Amino acid sequence: xxxxxxxxxxxxxxxxxxxxxxxxxxxxxxxxxxxxxxxxxxxxxxxxxxxxxxxxxxxxxxxxxxxxxxxxxxxxxxxxxxxxxxxxxxxxxxxxxxxxxxxxxxxxxxxxxxxxxxxxxxxxxxxxxxxxxxxxxxxxxxxxxxxxxxxxxxxxxxxxxxxxxxxxxxxxxxxxxxxxxxxxxxxxxxxxxxxxxxxxxxxxxxxxxxxxxxxxx
Length: 217
Hints:
- There is one protein chain.
- This protein is of the alpha+beta class.
- It is 31% helix and 33% strand.
- The protein is built from seven helices and nine strands.
- It has helices at residues 2-11, 23-26, 30-43, 87-94, 122-129, 134-142, 152-165, and strands spanning 51-57, 63-69, 72-74, 77-83, 97-104, 109-119, 177-191, 199-206, 209-214.
- A hairpin with a 2-residue loop joins strand 3 (72-74) and strand 4.
- Helix 6 (134-142) crosses helix 7 (152-165).
């Protein structure tokens, strides 16, 4: 066990496991710290560092989680895109709160985010939609996400139909497709340490800004 812990520490040397995460090093702005960690994950060669678990809940409290991709973030929140008629879209319409979780195993780092959710503007959704490959844009029209599908051939036929309908590169934004912004109220940074004595710093937003609390591992 000691050898395993030493090997894990060696692999992430200089990336937090040895030095840890102090309040001074973390700073007072969690978005700045998140950007630093996000860039470090990308530079470390983490596959899809933007992958995050998204948790929603039905009105009666039933939870659901799935992986989505972070497409933008700033002081206003964390943005992802999806079909508004999907299960997640229906749950967010009824209960506009969500939790996100990033896990960058190579760095022994995790970030948990909780907050309210709102749709981004149609202009934001369109601007991002235009950056997607044409096939992905056609696929957004073809898929009635989360609904039952009798045969895969039916999905492929829907794709072919919309491919003919929009033959050029100017594929319009589907009215049922767009972005959501998770507006953070709590952001927790978890840094793995040896002997399971991990660092956990919780940022909570109040009227004056962000407060920081250290949590037991």
